[in-house]
Amino acid sequence: MLEFKDIQAFILSGYGHQTYSCFYFYQINDASQARQWLNSLVPKVTHAEQRDPDAEKPPTAINLAFSAGGLTALGIDSETLSSFPREFTGGDNFSGSANPMSSNESADLLQDWGDSAPDNWQFGGPQNAPAHVQLMFFATTKEELETLCNQHKGNDSHGVTEVYQQHSNRSGDREAFGFHDGISQPGIIGSYIPTKPGQRSVNPGEFILGYANAYDQKPPSPTVSNSKDPLNILPDNGENQRDLGKNGTYLAVRKLEQHVDAFWDFCAEKTKNTDGSNNEDKKTWLASKMIGRWPSGAPLALCPMKDDPAIGADPLQNNNFVYSDDPNGLGCPMGAHLRRGNPRDNLPPDSIETSIKVTDRHRIIRRGRPYNDADGNEQGLMFMAVNADIQRQFQFVMQTWINSPKFGLMDENKDPILSGPKLLAPAPNGSKESVMVIPQEPVRQRINGLKRFVDVRGGGYFFMPGIKALQFITSNQ
């Protein structure tokens, strides 16, 4: 039974009706002052307890998360920190000011190269002040968001310094490239949120610590010795320790700049008519083949030839499909972004049953908020992956499905949207850059000259504790 009142609601809900949001990142300068401020926020943090069906949806929400350096700055000792996963802390290379996502090892794993290299990040990089605390605000109106931020954001008197902030206004259901987004999410067994056709539910331990995961085992959870919790705030884990992770999760945060003009210019250039004029239908066709859906949200698996806005807008249809009836990718290419991020029942050379089992073990909950900077020079997505195992979920998806040129038995074919074209180990006499393969009969089509259409502008790994764990972390230990 999920303990909803101890779970931050952000894990279960994307707050779809709260279209305005702001994400603050802080460096902790004075632990005592910071704990006092954060402790005052804990009662206001939005938890996941189910509201009365007749009650109005809440107009605002607040959520909190901490980096490994932030936990250290707040007084969490090294023994407790060592119980967190290496991917979160950096392991033996841990430093209170370091960000494991910006390490050289992580940059190679996530392929954060070139303009996406951590040295170029706006926050979370080695050139930036450490981001210890992530404070998230959500509201239904711009005025409510401003009031919420003004009332509760941190400042010097709270012992923190703001190192970055990002506002967002999700005015519609489309991301910056113009495609209907946020359609496909895994369901959580035991949640009161109903699933939709085509939505697979997985064990809660894939996303919430303290519960069985897809292996029917509880994921490793950070712990605190009994002596360090004299008020018994945290639950007993049955091993003479207190469970600091129970009802919490990890966030992989990435600010992603989308090069919209470059993306559509590329698609236009590759689909020109023989006389050199633009072919708008073919341009949209190629873009959709790269994404895996048409702009309306209609999946290529159901609408391989043309867009069907009615299906795209219908939540009972737009996610209700499989890939096993399109094993060769004639409808949705194997290399399409959508298919790589969630291969469903078709992971060659595995059987349907094995493919489903493997896919279920590597799902993430995607929480994304579009942004468009005031100067109009940058737009994209504040992306957050919710997962209980950073390595097996977020990092696996990025390394093995998104960035691998051999995903689905392909060759020289990385994700055309999220990944850059550079190949780590090109085949002898082969291309040094990724291509987009579009299966067709009688001859497949290879799209060359791919560019990096999405660049990373910041990021980090954060621990989003349960409410009791928040009380413990922010108390005067």
Would you mind describing this structure in some detail?
It is a single chain. Helix 1 runs antiparallel to helix 13 and helix 7 crosses helix 8. The chain is built from 13 helices and 14 strands. The protein has a 4-stranded antiparallel β-sheet. A 4-stranded antiparallel β-sheet has the order 10-11-9-14, with no helix packed on it. It is globular, with a radius of gyration of 22 Å. With 477 residues, it is of the alpha+beta class. Strand 10 and strand 11 form a beta hairpin. The protein starts with 19 loop residues before the first strand and ends with a helix. Helices cover 22% and strands 18% of the residues.
Keywords:
14 strands, 477 residues, globular, alpha+beta, 18% strand, four-stranded antiparallel β-sheet, 22% helix
Summarize the helices and strands and which ones pair or pack:
Layout: E1 20-28, H1 31-41, E2 60-66, H2 68-73, H3 78-81, H4 86-89, H5 104-110, E3 133-139, H6 142-152, E4 160-169, E5 187-188, E6 201-202, E7 223-225, E8 241-243, E9 249-258, H7 260-269, H8 280-291, H9 309-313, H10 337-341, H11 352-360, E10 365-372, E11 379-387, H12 391-402, E12 436-438, E13 445-447, E14 454-464, H13 467-474
Parallel strand pairs: 5-6
Antiparallel strand pairs: 1-3, 1-4, 2-3, 7-8, 9-11, 9-14, 10-11, 12-13
Helix pairs in contact: 1-13, 7-8
